[in-house]
Amino acid sequence: MVLPLGLLTAAQGHPMLVELKDGETLNGHLVSCDTWMNLTLKEVVQTSPEGDKFTRLPEVYVKGNNIKYLRMPDEIIDLVKDQQQGQQSGYRGRGGNRGDRGGDRGRGGRGGRGRGRGGRVHKAYTYMAHWILKPSHSQREILAHDNKKTSIPPVLQLHYKIHERLSQLKTEEGAYTQVAEVVEYLVKVRQERPALVHYDALIAANADAENGSAEVVRTLLEEMKGLGIGADSGLYHTVLQVLAIHPDYLLRTQILEEMKERWYGLSPAGWHNLVIGLLRDRQYEMAMDKFEQMQADQIEIKPWLYDILFFRLCELDELDEALRLLKSRYHKPPLAMHMYYHLLDSFASSFHYEGTSYIWRLLVETSEMNPADGTCTAVLNCAARHADPNLATSAIGLLSKRSTVLGVHHYEALLEAYVGVQDIKTSFRILNIMTKAGLTPDANSTRPIYLYLTTSSFHALDGWKTLKSLKEDGYTIPIAAVNVVLEAVIFTNNLSHSPDYAINYYKELHTICDAGPNIETFNTLLRGLAHNKRGSKPKAMFLASEIQALNLKPDELTYDRLILICLQPENADFDDCFRYLEEMMLVGKDKVDATGRRGWWMRPGTAVALVKRCVECGDERTWQLMEDMRERGMVNEYTRLKVWTDLYWPKGGGRASLQDGKGEIIEMRSNEDKSTFGTAALGVS
Q1: Cβ(312)–Cβ(289) below 8 Å
Q2: How is residue 598 annotated by DSSP?
Q3: Rounded CA gap, 557 and 544, in Å?
Q4: Number of domains composing the chain
Q5: What residue spans carry the region label Disordered (predicted)?
Q6: Residue 208: which of 252, 266, 169 has the closest Cα?
Q7: Which residue, of 28, 48, 72, is where some domain finishes?
Q8: Cβ-proximal residues to 275 (8 Å cutoff; 6+ apart), any chain
């Protein structure tokens, strides 16, 4: 017999024989059916049309238009028919189900005129249908629809509507409470026997992010086993869907093992939920293994799964894996553009050169992508780090097209990229461009050039030749370019061995740099003289006179290095050190030093050197210097010097006590007028 849809719905969970139009037969348990009579059977034995081949299948999906004949046990059909007849008699309102007066509010037996239980159940059905169906369906429409003359009894129509609505609710977001209420109604009010369809709906409802729980799913599965209700492939997939939102490693492992035992395979949606659940559970390596298995099995992967993987890989700084995954999608539908923006920003910010250059050349240089200024700056820095001047030029060119005001940091990154490929001439040109743009490069801007020039003394000397060549080509040479070459020459060619290089370059400076030297130029030259052990003081005095002639203002470092030069052993008279110290304190009394203290003073190393020289000569000014060191916070140096002076102070020499304050304080001021730097420098013979 061909069973009506209502009977099929009521027969779920029972054995059934299905004959297909090609003659094959399927013998298994009915799991579910839909509006188009499409059936799902589990634990199926498939028989060939000739009846000579048998195949056992865990689950089969049968389309309704392919079904020729359906058969199920007669006792099941009789049971369903009896239920229909009882419900129909109650629906017509003619008498109770029992003959006693008080049983069902009826007035007699089956032929009486009292209201039967069936009438009450139908009211509950009608109310439930009105609550479950979409709001657009009024109660009058529901009753009118139920009263139509169809081959399916009205109660079974309502039964089907409730189950259909239940299947819809379990896929809707935020329907957790509604699903629970519908299942409770079906089991308690309609007294349906708990079946797979009820548990499947309850488990699916736990996919709700706020109300769902993996622990509830575990309890429901245990309850099913206690009732002897077997799980099918659909229920296992529903559990995986819940675990994608509420991860539970042990439950997931249990589900996968049970599916494997029953030969249930994962559907594409199941694979997606499995990978997402592993990612949420921080099982990243396992998630990537499953994802690669999906690719190997040629399972269609949804774009949103790629997005989630990319976001998580970038968050974990697994950029090599992200790039590999990105390249694997090259011949597939492209990613959404927002994903490319995120990947480029992540690659560039982390200085991942391969990923940055891949996306930049694939999309930005082809004008398919227009990254933000911040991303372009990150790309520029990445190119500088990995010495790719072409990428750096492309990034800074894109910024220039937008009329973005380029700052020092943009040019410094571009300069570093060219230094990385040993293109020093272009690096010096960039300093020229900075000057024309109204920016002033300083020692920080030229550090990449300095690091390259100091790798060899020949590089340092070639640097000066490069500046001369650029000047001949009509470029304006900034003083920062001159200073970095002088600094490199001093570092690679010690003045004791090459006494004329730095000074001679200084004398040629006006021929290549129209701006002339600044105080940093002299500080660089004085640094070289301070490290030289012989013949430095006359050259230092020459430089001091140049500072005065050019009307430059010396800074704290200038005085400090002059003091170091005057402290050299070849200078028997080191009184000039105190003259420069006094002038230093006078000029910088209202200024803040490098440590944030008001007033200039010597650096700790210079102060220690001066104190030791005073101790060696038995100079009483030692104690005032040490007191000044203590007051200026040089506690460590003061403590070590205190022990050292006790050991090495000349015997029989006069001594002022620092502890009790006794003794005469030596006046360090000279009778000479030292109100200007030049006077002090020129007064030294």
Answers
A1: no
A2: B
A3: 13
A4: 2
A5: 82-119
A6: 169
A7: 72
A8: 287, 290, 291, 294, 305, 309
